């Protein structure tokens, strides 16, 4: 058995969904531990594209896999139920027992989404680029101890009491500060009780389920959302998400101790992208950036927004290695670099004569930092059919080896296409445990 955490090393959108789907063949349990439906994992299985927002990517594997949504996830019950229905319709049944939902996960309510949209509209050009899904306001209520949890839906009186208390405050804020219409109690109450009845068979104590799985000798895969630079504590604040996206979040967000983790695998795109606002030192606004965006089909899985593209940033990657305690890397979308005569890797930043090899805490310094590049030879060959490292063009091999040297951790997996099969496996994360 082995317990493996998969995390993003950049600003999200690194291709975690595909890697999780690939690794699930050797895991019996897959658990999502943070974030909400602001994340979107895109998978291609049998030529079909699937986008999952809440349910772990392992759901597309065999029936003997169990998927769990941990307490660290904030859940929009309507979105979750639609996702279950869509998978059922597409031939991937999601019955209770195959999927479990933590009784302690917090619920995204209609007022969270209304506040999210209202704040962004009020900020105008200073908006941070939130998805508007209510993620941040939901986490705010969780920390302020006024949140509503999944288990509350199964007690009608408790739910009514908590909803009345919080809705009075939310409606005052919505109407008097944000200038939008207040929300009615009865409609929310009735709708969410209906959601609760539908979700009740899925609700359980995820921490206990994980302990039972470990005692039974099962391998567990912990699936993160977003990326390290979107971590609420360690990312490019305030242009971040509202949860801890680093590996340590798996322990809090699923209910396990840190001594239970065997491997932390960091997913790193062969270049860098980010969606929404915030500093991006290696961003390219030229024809190379257009090439990466076009060849990589760089559109957000959740929002559909065009992703900003740039060269690989080792400052960002080294942050991820340190903050997550990475065991190894999986490099994704290496095939997108095919056709470029030369490649650049950012090894440090320069700001007002000072060299930074780690991320500056001052957000203005990050925004104004100039990347220091080293240049490598590119390649023109189509590598989507390659299945062994030695078969890659020598320039592509050199690129991977240089990433290993600069990051200080080995590369175990290399993705050369969107499907499961289009992957070079140098070492399997579940091997040897």
From TrEMBL:
Organism: Thermosulfuriphilus ammonigenes
Pfam families attached to this UniProt entry: Adenylsucc_synt
Residues that bind substrate: 301-307
Residues annotated as signal peptide: none
Subunit structure of this chain's protein: Homodimer.
Keyword DNA damage (UniProt): no
Reaction catalysis annotation: IMP + L-aspartate + GTP = N(6)-(1,2-dicarboxyethyl)-AMP + GDP + phosphate + 2 H(+)
Domain of life of the source: Bacteria
Protein name (database record): Adenylosuccinate synthetase
Residues that bind IMP: 13-16, 38-41, 131, 145, 226, 241, 305
Active-site residues, Swiss-Prot/TrEMBL: 13, 41
């Amino acid at each position: 058995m082995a317990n493996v955490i998969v995390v993003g090393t950049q600003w999200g959108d690194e291709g975690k969904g595909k890697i999780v789907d690939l690794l699930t063949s050797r895991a019996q349990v897959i658990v999502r531990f943070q974030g909400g439906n602001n994340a979107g994992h895109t998978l291609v299985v049998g030529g079909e594209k699937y986008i999952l927002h809440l349910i772990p990517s392992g759901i597309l594997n065999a029936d003997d896999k169990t998927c769990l949504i941990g307490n660290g996830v904030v859940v929009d019950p309507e979105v979750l139920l639609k996702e279950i229905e869509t998978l059922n319709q597409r031939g991937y049944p999601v019955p209770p027992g195959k999927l479990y939902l933590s009784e302690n996960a917090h619920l995204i309510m209609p007022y969270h989404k209304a506040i999210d949209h209202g704040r962004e509209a009020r900020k105008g050009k200073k908006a941070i680029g939130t998805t508007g899904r209510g993620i941040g306001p939901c986490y705010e209520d969780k920390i302020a101890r006024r949140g509503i949890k999944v288990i509350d839906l199964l007690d009608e009186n408790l739910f009514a009491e908590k909803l009345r208390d919080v809705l009075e405050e939310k409606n005052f804020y919505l109407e008097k500060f944000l200038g939008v219409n207040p929300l009615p109690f009865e409609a929310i109450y009735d709708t969410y009780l209906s959601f609760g009845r539908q979700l009740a068979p899925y609700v359980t104590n995820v921490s206990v389920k994980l302990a039972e799985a470990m005692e039974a000798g099962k391998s567990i895969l912990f699936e993160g959302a977003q990326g390290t630079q979107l971590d609420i504590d360690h990312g490019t604040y305030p242009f971040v998400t509202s949860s801890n996206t680093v590996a340590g979040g798996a322990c809090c967000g699923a209910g396990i101790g840190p001594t239970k983790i065997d491997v932390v695998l960091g997913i790193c795109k062969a270049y860098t992208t980010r969606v929404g606002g915030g500093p991006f030192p290696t961003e390219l606004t030229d024809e190379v950036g257009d090439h990466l965006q076009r060849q990589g089909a760089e559109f957000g899985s959740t929002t559909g927004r065009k992703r900003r593209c740039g060269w690989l940033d080792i400052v960002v990657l080294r942050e991820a290695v340190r903050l997550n305690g990475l065991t190894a890397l999986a490099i994704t979308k290496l095939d997108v670099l095919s056709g470029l005569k030369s490649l650049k890797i950012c090894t440090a930043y320069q700001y007002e004569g000072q060299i930074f090899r780690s991320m500056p805490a001052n957000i203005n310094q990050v925004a104004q930092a100039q990347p220091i590049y080293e240049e490598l030879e590119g390649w023109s060959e189509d590598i989507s059919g390659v299945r062994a490292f030695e078969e890659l063009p020598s320039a592509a091999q050199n690129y991977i080896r240089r990433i290993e040297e600069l990051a200080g951790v080995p590369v175990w997996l290399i993705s050369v296409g969107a499907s499961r099969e289009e992957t070079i496996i140098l070492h399997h994360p579940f091997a040897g445990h």
